[in-house]
Request: fold
Amino acid sequence: MTTRVIGVAAALMIVGAFAAAPAAQPAADYVIGPPDVLTIQVFEQQDLAGKYTVESDGSLTFPLIGRIKAGGLTLRAFEDELKRQLADGYFKNPSVSVSVEQYRSQRLFVMGEVRQPGPVALTGGMTLIEALARAGSTLPTSSGEVAIVRAPQGTPNGPLKPDQEGVSEIFRASIRDLESGTLSQNLQLRDGDTVFVPRAESVYVFGHVRNPCCRRCRWRAA
Reply:
């Protein structure tokens, strides 16, 4: 694996690029789960609007309808189900909007050479750049590569390293490409992913050079 080291100036540029990256919009295909908090609006029926928490069994209580299943459905599918039930004897052609007020059911992990490693709540449509920004961006000691480590679906959530047993897929991206705006490198993440930023390899410079040393930065021979 080819590694490079990010100097202080480059690191500051990356922090700025991540901070300026627009937040991904909540995707209509986000899968709802407990204990997500949803904002539901029924247009021209303000008394039905409100925030509703998905309970442990995946359902919530909605006025007029009572218990309705939300867990396991996408936002779009849950909107359609609400419309169907509200149209069944209550309103004619109801217009319903469902969004996520608080993302609580899904998460990923950003580990390694980042400023704030740990779990990150997965929002709809979250991309690699946004996840790195949530972790405070990379450190000057990081290499020039990011690995997205994906476990098989249905396995317990927990951070994984690229060489760890049980890894299903590994995707690699270049920090330089992300910084330059290469969209193909800005992958969309899913529940349980680990974003791992490895430490740069040390380069030892000895012999007939002006400054023999061990460095974690770009070096020039004499």
Observations:
- The longest helix spans residues 8-20.
- Helices lie at 8-20, 75-87, 128-134, 175-179.
- Residues 1-26, 217-222 have pLDDT under 50 and may be disordered.
- The CA atoms of residues 114 and 139 lie 5 Å apart.
